[in-house]
Structures are given as structure tokens and as C-alpha cells.
Amino acid sequence: ERMGRRRRWVAIQLVLFICVYLLVVVSTSDLPNSVPDPAQEQDNNVITQGTFVATTTPTESPGKSIENSPNSDPSNSIDINIEVNRAKETLSITDSMMISPGPSASIVSKVPENIRSALQILYKASEKGHDDALHALGEIYFEGLYVPRNLTKAFEYYKAAADQGLPAAQQAVGFLYSTGYGVEENKPLALIYHEFASKGGDLDAKTVLGNRYFFGDGVIANCDVSALHYKEVAQVVAEELMETGLGWFVKNERLVEDETVQEETDIIQFWQYSADTGDAKAQVMMGVLHLKGTYGIKQDFNQALYYFQLAANQDDEAGITNLGLMYLKGYGVEKNYNTAKEFFLRAVKKGFSEAQAYLGDMYQKGLGVRASPTEAFNLFKQSAEQKNPYGSLQLGNCYFHGIGVKQDYNMALNYFTLATQPGTMNHYSLASQCGSVISLFNLAQMFRLGLATQKSCTNAVTLYRKVIERGPFGMLLSKAHDYYDSGDVDSALLYYEKTAALGFELGQSNAAWLYDHGFGDPIVRHKKAFSLFREAAEQSNARALLKMGDYYYYGKGIDSDHEKAAAFYKAASDMHEPQATFNLGYMHQHGVGLPQDFYLAKRYFDLVSGYYPDAYLAVGLALGYLGIHYVVSGQWEFGFLELDFDTVIIIALVLVLVVVGLLRFFVGQRRVA
Description:
The chain is an all-alpha fold. The chain is built from 30 helices and no strands.
């Protein structure tokens, strides 16, 4: 009987094991395949004449939307798709809404009839399982567009669309799982959704995975895999920039305690006033703003043309060149290469570097002129000699491909590097931003492939990330800061965290700063701040390293550990962070987390004065206290402090104040007696 029980129990265990095994196999059958071997990628010729060889990028999978249902009527599904797309247009919801400023999040108390009808169309389509409608409703609740923001509902709609295989929805679900917005935080599950979305071609997901593989966040660190993810996204940004000739205004504003911000509206009003009073440079600026559609100004090619024409009428070379660009690209006017050439030639005669580069483009591609690689090379060279980033980019391309000159990878590397040098990129110059950003991509490619330089995956990833941050993805930072400026800190925090997930150091730092200053969920505030500061510190942000030291020192969001605090302070001090350096002096003085060493303490206090001269008073008081501490400790040696005159004066004043205070105390005591 005992043997029979044992056999039955073994049989039951075997059946349970088989059931669990089958369940695991079924649930993981759709998981992403293993990451590709970087060595298998064939893209040695990714850098081409002014543009790039596009790799095959998976398109968004249609998933299991109703149009793919075997029981659905094709004509009905087409009608529903048309209705959903019209509804999205009415509600200003675009496929790229989450990487562009988009409509401002607002709650409309009295919804217009056309908006109400559009929402009803989406609701009805979502009830039938239409993935695009489900995703659109997720966007609406995420943004708080026409309805109060509700991240729990946003998650539900995103999840329903994601379960049907829509990559954009899978990425949104991954973000919400990773941050705990609208659902309980679950980072491993977030990673799975990011992998699915990336496999479906979602660029946000590829950027997230690039960041996670580079730092080993939830996965085994693999720089090569990270570079492949980043490369795909950076290439899209570079190709779009090369095609349009326009760039993006990204607000790279860091939140700090002593922040002094000039209102954006004041800046625009100043430019507008200057342009109206005949300032040619301001007219060019207003033209650029209208051409790009940024800083709260709607894109308007006619207005851009108007301002450029005003500047050109004053013989301003930038205004003349930008008019040529509009005719070259067909912005607001019919494309006309002859007219474009005339404007460029007019500016070239004035020695304007941007016009030289654009005219070189025309000769290289044979646009309205007889193709001449030699003439193009000479024009690019003239432009590059004036350190114009676009001219340097195109000259580098000539050397890279041997166009109009003998092929030379070393010279190509030099000119790509020149185009990315600090001070050469002018945000108000269309050609400047284009040349600088695309050169960053080309440099990344050369570092990754080891062309004319030592192969460096780390350098490649760093450069790819810079390209992405300066592209449309960086507009999330602008959107976050717009919310912050308007006083909507919760929305600002939400979007800073989106950029943090993409690996943007500025987003990580600003989100951490908000949590550190008391915003966000109080239950997880310190934990999130610590995590975000850690991510920013991994990208060598000195301020984040300082805050990591503070969190370990005081035990905020983590167990107190003075030795780890000292290690982070040391890393920040090596980057000349004055507060961290001061903290090291204090810790050496008192033997907290570091061996007590008065000489090293004095050394660190002295360094503070070099890093931040305005801290002379704090340094003087610290040295005075250090001297007293040293004497009291019984370790006094003549010449230990070697104080300068200013410090001696400060210490003397402090001693005088102490003496005066003591005298007043004793005199007061006598009078009482």
C-alpha cells in the first residue's frame, strides 16, 4: 500500500511537471529571438555621399487587429480604418506624438461636437478590438487630451493594443511597467515588452534597449548589441536631417537651485520686435523659427519666406542663402534649382560658408548644373576652411568615398571631427546643425567599424546617443521643460522619466532633481531619485555623483554607507565638483568613512578654492575650524596650516566675534548679579 501511494505521488508530480513545461513553452514561444551577432551585420559602406544606405527596418506589425480577423468583412475593416484615421486627425493624434511636442495636454470642459464624435468613433472601434484605436485612446489618457489624465486607463488601452502586437503600444506598456505609472512596477516584464516593440521596429524601444544593454540594466551588458540598437535609431535621425535640411530646437535646460531663466515668450517678442524694426539677423531668426516650427511658433513656410526675403533685401548673406534653400527643397515655393543656384551664387560672392556648401551639393549631385565632383570638392573645401560644419561634413564625405579627390579615411575622420567641435554648431544655422549632427553619426560609424581610428564601441555608442538626443526624440526634453515652465510639475516629471528611459542623461538628472526636491509620489520618492541619480552618474555627471554620495551618506532611499559615500564624492571631486571636494575634506577631518587625516583634509579644502573661488568664506571658516581641531587633538606641528593672508583675516575676525560674544555674556551675567 505504501509503494502504491508513492507511485501515485510520483505520477502526479510527473503530470504536473509536464503541464508546467508545456505552459512555459507556449508562453515563451513568441518571445524575441536572441540578439543578433554584431559580426553578421554587413554595413561597411553605411556612409555614402551625403546620405546613408538604409538598412532594412521592420515595419509595425499589424498584430491581430480586426482587419486581420478571418470573420471580419474586408470592406467593413477598411471603413473602420478610415474612420479611425480621420478621428485621430481631428484629435491631433499622430503616430509620432510621443516623440514630438504634440498638442498641449489640457482638459476641455466643453468638448466641441467634432471632438466628441471623433472620441466616439475611437471608443466604438476599440470595442471591436481595433489595435490603432486602442493605442490612440491610450495616448489620449496618457496625455490628458480632452479627458483628465488617467495613467491606469492609459495602461489598459495600451495593453489591449500591445496584446494584438502593435509595437508602439508594446513600447508604451514597457515604459509604464518600468516606471510604475498606472500599474505596479515590473522591470523584467517591461524588458520583455521593450524587446517585442524593438523587434517590431519601434524606435523608442530600440533606444531604450540600447541604453539597457550598454549599462547592463536588467540584461548582461553588451556594448556591441547596444551599438546596433542605437545605430538604427541614429541612422533614421541622420537620414531625415539630410533629406529635409532642417533640424530641431531641443531645450537642453538643466534644473538647478539657482536657475535663472529668461522667459521664452520674452525672447520671441524681442526677436519679433527687432525683425519688425529692420534688424536683418532677427529677420533671419524669425524665418528659421517659422521654417522649423518651434518655440511655440507654428510651422509656416510662407512666413519663413517673407522674413528671409526681408533679410535678403538688405543683402544679408544668411537671408539670401536660406531663400536659396527654400527653392532647393521646395519649401513653400515650387522647387526651382536655377533660382536656388542664383541665390547661392549671390551669397558665395560674399564668401558665405553655408552658401558654398549648398552650392557644392548642387555640383556634386548635378542639380540645375552640370555635375562636377571637382567643383563640388573646391566649394566644400572653401566652406570647411571657415569651419562650417556642413562644409566639413561634405568634404569628409568626399575624402571617405574618393569623390573629386583621392580616397583618404584619415582626412575624412579629421573633417568629420572638425564638424563636431564645440563652438562650430550654431542652432540658428540650418546647415550648421545638419552638418554637425550627421558628422557625429559618421564618426560613430568609423569608431564602431574601426576605420582610420582604433575601434571603440564605447565611443560609437556615445556619439550615436548624441545624434539621437539632437533629433526628434530630444523634443521630449523640450516638452518636459514646457510643462515645468507652465507649473505642471507632474507632467514634466512624467516626460523627464520618458527621456530617462531612453538613456538621456539630462532627463535622468532633471527627473531625479524633481524627486529630490519633494515632487512625485512620496512613497517612492527617495528610491526613484536614487535610481535616476545612479543612471546619470553612470554617464559621468558630476552633480549626480555628488548626490549619490549624499544619498549614501544620509541613508536616503538606501542604507547609509559612509565608505561608498566617500567613493562617490571622490569620483565627483576628480571632475572638479566643489561641494564633493569640500565633503571629502570634512570626512578626512573627522574620520567619517575615510581615515582621519588633517593634512588631506586641508588639501581638499584648498582645492575647493581653486574649483569655486566664491567659496572663500566657507573655506576660510573650515580651515579655521580644522586648525582648532588639530590643536585640540594634540597633533600640532608648526607650519601645518600654511594659511594665506585672506584666510588669516577671516580666522581673526571669527576669533574677534567669539571674544566679543563671550565678553557680552560675562558682562550680562555681572549685571544680573
